[in-house]
Design goal:
With about 450 residues, this protein is an alpha/beta fold. It contains 14 helices and 11 strands. Helix 8 crosses helix 10 and helix 10 packs across helix 12. It binds adenosine-5'-diphosphate and 6-O-phosphono-beta-D-glucopyranose (BG6). The site of 6-O-phosphono-beta-D-glucopyranose has 20 residues, from helix 6 and strand 9.
Length: about 450
């Protein structure tokens, strides 16, 4: 789409802004042919990543899940879901065979930014304190029988080298976290120590990535779920792989990193990309006049939720865009034409992200051999989706689904179901705590 400046007041400048937009749009273009190359490359790298240590740019995490939840699990289990922006504490009550999930309760807490770059103790003490508060507010019905500990599934949404179902060491931080002393440490040990300090008698039965939690949660209610994708602050995917398809894994801890497809397509990055382009237009094309608004120079000043609100502005005078620019970037006087340019930019950035996300999903489908119709059989493929970006950014998730249909073709797409598994990662972690409970043999 070409952005046309109605009143060419500053002809050269307006043309310059136009030029920057068009150049940027060209760079963001993701034609189907390019996306199919991305998907093919991803499949190749996935094979390489499973074949040998360090064999690929796309390293693959191998999650130890001995028993996926069957639906027969019974009792009360907990989850702690630590993501890039917030964390949730959760309690689920399971009714066992034929009953399933009876109820769930959760509390969501934003992670104070200073804890993302402080010490390990500060972060885990804060998390354990919230967990202890959640448990202390429980009603009598959740009192455990004597001799039993509460059991927790720990969703830790960062690259972890897993060494068993409930042990794993942090490979590195992502999404703005940077607590250096924690790298290489066992994250379950850190949490367990902090829980003990709170006097919380709880054990971690399962350590999972949020994609694995979403996969387990999805399969609990739908056996056709074969993969899970998270599009939140970060992005990632998990799928069920046959052990024999992992040559490098001989039942011993894998030293691989993780399967990261975080090509700045997720919530952490989209708003920041828009900000950087607008800043360039302000600096090189006097988009806001002869001065560059100071707030526009602050990294991450424009968050993806605000970008999303502008992108979804349906008002004729783009009032939401005007308000966001004023409240967040302190840019007061903007013309309708300028606001339209901002919306078009949001569309370019969101479209690129969504289309690349679809290419990543196609890569996983190809790895599972589900990107082409098997002769005649109509195998159903359900992909469980979770993450605040997917859940709240309607234009993004719509574009993702349309792109997946474009890449797979209408016929095949009919067998693919994209199912939003709200809070799948938290519930899945609690279910995995249940299916790996140390009291199972007592049942
Ligand atoms: N209204 C919204 N529109 C677009 N993106 C949103 C919106 N709300 C949240 N997000 C994105 O979702 C991310 C949070 O994802 P979520 O899955 O809830 O948490 P986490 O990433 O911590 O697991 C935020 O970083 C933000 O980028
Ligand atoms: O749920 P979040 O916080 O957006 O995380 C999604 C992904 O974010 C990536 O940065 C992590 O390396 C992955 O492990 C994680 O799955």
């Amino acid at each position: 789409a070409v952005v046309v400046c109605r009143r060419v007041k500053r002809g050269g400048k307006c043309g310059k802004a136009n030029g920057i937009m068009k150049e940027f749009e060209e760079k963001c273009r993701t034609p189907a042919a390019k996306l199919k190359l991305v998907a093919d490359a991803m499949t190749v790298e996935m094979h390489a990543g499973l074949a040998s240590e360090g064999g690929s740019k796309l390293k693959m995490i191998i999650s130890y899940v001995d028993n996926l939840p069957t639906g027969d699990e019974k009792g009360t289990y907990y989850a702690l879901d630590l993501g890039g922006t917030n964390f949730r504490v959760l309690r689920v009550h399971l009714g066992g065979k034929g009953v399933g999930l009876i109820n769930q309760e959760f509390a969501e807490v934003s992670i104070p930014p200073h804890l993302m770059t402080g010490t390990s103790d500060a972060l885990f003490d804060y998390i354990a304190a919230e967990l202890a508060k959640f448990v202390s507010q429980e009603s009598e019905e959740f009192k455990l029988s004597p001799g039993r500990q509460r059991e927790l599934g720990f969703t830790f949404s960062f690259p972890v080298m897993q060494t068993s179902i409930n042990t794993g060491t942090l490979v590195r931080w992502t999404k703005g976290f940077s607590i250096d002393e924690m790298v290489g440490r066992d994250v379950v040990e850190e949490l367990s120590r902090a829980m003990a300090k709170q006097g919380l008698d709880m054990s971690v039965s399962a350590l999972v990535n949020d994609t694995v939690g979403t996969l387990a949660g999805g399969r609990y209610t739908n056996k056709d779920v074969v993969a899970a994708v998270i599009l939140g602050t970060g992005s990632n995917a998990a799928y069920v792989e046959r052990a024999q398809a992992i040559p490098k894994w001989h039942g011993v801890p894998s030293k691989s990193g993780e399967m990261i497809f975080e090509k700045m397509i997720s919530g952490m990055y989209l708003g920041e990309i828009v900000r950087r382009v607008v800043l360039r237009m302000a600096q090189e094309a006097a988009f806001f006049g002869d001065t560059v608004p100071p707030k526009l120079e602050v990294p991450f000043a424009l968050r993806t939720p605000d970008m999303s609100a502008m992108h979804h502005d349906t008002s004729s005078d783009l009032k939401v865009v005007e308000t966001k620019l004023k409240d967040i970037l302190e840019i007061s006087s903007t013309s309708l034409s300028m606001r339209k340019t901002i919306v078009e930019l949001c569309n370019i950035v969101a479209t690129r992200g969504a289309r690349l996300a679809a290419a990543g999903i196609l890569g996983v489908l190809k790895k599972m051999g589900r990107d082409a119709a098997k002769d005649g059989d109509k195998q159903k493929t359900v992909i469980a989706m979770d993450g605040g970006l997917y859940e709240h950014y309607a234009e993004y998730s719509k574009c993702l689904e349309n792109t997946l249909e474009e890449l797979l073709g209408e016929e095949l797409f009919k067998n693919i179901v994209i199912s939003h598994s709200n809070d799948g990662s938290g519930i899945g972690a609690a279910l995995l705590a249940a299916s790996h409970s140390k009291y199972l043999q007592d049942e």
